[in-house]
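tool_log.txt
---
The assistant was asked to compare two proteins side by side. It first ran the structure predictor on the initial sequence, then on the second. Raw inputs and outputs are pasted verbatim so the downstream comparison step can read them without reformatting.
(1)
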Amino acid sequence: MQYQVLQTSQEFASLAGEWNTLVKNSASDVPFLRHEYLSAWWETLGGGEWAQGDLYTVLARQADGTLAGIAPMFFSPNREGEPALLLLGCIEISDYLDLIAPSNLLTPFIEGLLDHLAGPTAPPWTVLDWWNIRDDSLTLPAIKTAVERRGWNFAHEPLQNCPRIPLPGDWETYLASIDKKQRHEIRRKMRRMEESGQPVCWYIVEDEASLDSEIEAFMDIMIQDPNKRRFLTEAMRKQFLLSSRGAFHAGWLQLAFLEVHWMKAAGYMNFDYNNQLYIYNSAINFDFREYSPGWVLLGNLLQWANENKRQFFDFMRGDEDYKYRFGGIAQRVNRVVVRR
């Protein structure tokens, strides 16, 4: 393989088509590795999470010029202040990150990548600090083997659980698979909403003309939660807007709202990607708490996902109890730290 480096936003932007084709064929095909998502992330440095960073994304091409691997990275002091190469997307707002390469090319890509990073043209890094790599990633064993062969130090730190629900493709079959008490609660809250006497509906945003106003409305509901109000700085609002637009235009944004009496009572911002529904963020209007609008909308989304034959309903990072009560099975993300 021949290796090259992207160090400018213009070079990064020019690679969109090839990038997304490789993601589709890679061992880790998740929305957070898509070009439209990572370009939005880089524009805002994660909504202001990082104060500085220099793009240092390494590509590998085969002899015929075909793109074979991408290490989407940037150079910056990490949280401990060490000169580090980190994955684009880290840490807080991108649930699943990884290298990008097909399964059969991942090991040779990693070997060549480490050779390149050990060379004189690489930034003066002391640590590869890669966050949010899933338990089932092929990168974990491949990078460990390659690193230890060089006599470098490899450390692996488990991070958060990421519950996800395998879906049977039928709503009643799904309900029968979860705890009886939970099944009763879902049905009771959905029925109570239907019988409230209020006009009730839920919908998925499909009109591009209203997209920005719907995203803004979602964020305005989010900030009723004090923790989310602190999180949604101006830079983070810009990040949400850019990443949501990119996902919408690429066809994998699912922005859903529950309305009660023509007012937004709850919202979910999800990624409907690769036959899976990734549950990214939620917003609850506290004026409608008596109706449990978050649960009701979540129930409708689970019914939709089953009826539309999605394979998984992925709650992603966070160990909240309700995720397990809805049938989530834990997987995990990890931090990989390499020192030479």
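(2)
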Amino acid sequence: MSNNRGRVLILLFSFFFFLFYFVSCASRDVYSADSLTLDAAIDGTASYFASRIPSGAKMALVPFDAPSALLSDYVFEELWRRFEDSSGRFVMVDRRNLERIEAEIKQQYETGRVDEAHMVSITKQYGAEILVHGQINAIGNEYRITVYATDMEKASSSQRVFNVKLDNRLASLLNMSADDEVERAVKAMARAVNQKTIIAIGRISYVDTQTVTNFSAWLKNSIISSAQKQRDKFQVAAESESVDFAIASRGLTAEVTNTGIQAVIIGNYSPLDSDTVVLLQLVSSGNNRMLLASERFIITAAELERRKLSLLPVKGSNVISKTEFEAKQKLIASYSGNNNKWAFTVTPDVLDGIYHEGGYMSMRIFSEKDCYFRVIHIDVNGNAQIIYPVSANDNNFIRAGQTRRIPDNTRYRMGPPFGEEIILAAAYERPFTLNTQSGAAPLSEDALSRSMTAESDGSRPIGPSATARFSYSIFPMSSE
């Protein structure tokens, strides 16, 4: 009996020992056997390529695509220093010439398609023989750094991959606030201009839609604050100048230069797991709309939560569901103007699509051809209503090449409920009778079809020959 008791005690001891061991292991980060510190990985990268790249090669090194802009900058600077100090083995491309190369590569990473032939073409313009670039991605409890060295003549790449464990240095480089991320991005874009440039902040929207949210509004304010710190490179246009620029650019390109605005910051953001990836672009305001710089960074879910920011628009005081948002986008998709018979646009009198309570809105309609037009408003709650023309006194005829302001003698006052609203415009080749339907109807495919169909002089109903749309968001009165 005593022997049995002893065996039981041994078994119990063994069980609790292995349980303790398992829990203690689970509470620690588990790394692969070959994982390195970040600095060791950078050293390994520099040593690997320094021994393989021909001596005297002209090298272009661009910042890495990474979870944190600070991490990207750190790896770039450390690699640059190591390559530059490699006993004069390499000639480094002037940093001012890297902006275009970097912008092109970031755009390719953003789309998920890295076109090596295109990267070679862009890089060759600056005389580089070797392009070094890479990515840093989270893999479980550690990170993977992948570095590419592309030979411009052979149009082929070699690569080196390291697993990096989360040490104190890496943790500190990943821990950037949202304000720090925006400031770093703006500072990087400032390096792309050679002289003081007057800039405006354009639309920064959700994914590939025109939707702006309180996150868009926060980004705009943060960009302005960061740009004002770059006094030697950026001068932020006043709000009135931005409105003038918005109006002048609506089919009146000759007047754009007179506003003084030389470049615009635009962008988009999209979900990335639980975080949000932001892409900002600095674009010249000239007719060629040249891309001057592109910056990509990540805002964590914790930062969004702390600031009470949302990626989707609100309806009243609540954020709408993704299902409701996507359903509305699907309904208006056919009114994007993709199948227009001629150029026809409708645009708001602001660049960013953001209005506050108590403000006013008007829109500009431009047509390349003589036509008759109709304007439909979709409110926050998803109700559609014809807002122009609504009486026989409304002149809904527009001449070719003309830009009309709607409404004619007043403006629409912005107020609650807060959220996203949509404007749809349709152009017709023949005059039509006014729709006697009054009031708003719930948004549906049938309701939009009826609203867009016009009765023309007693003949059969006609559909539009061209369509256009824009969305905008109304927010509570600004506290600033």
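---
observation on (2): Residues 6-30, 251-255 have pLDDT under 50 and may be disordered. The longest strand covers residues 130-139.
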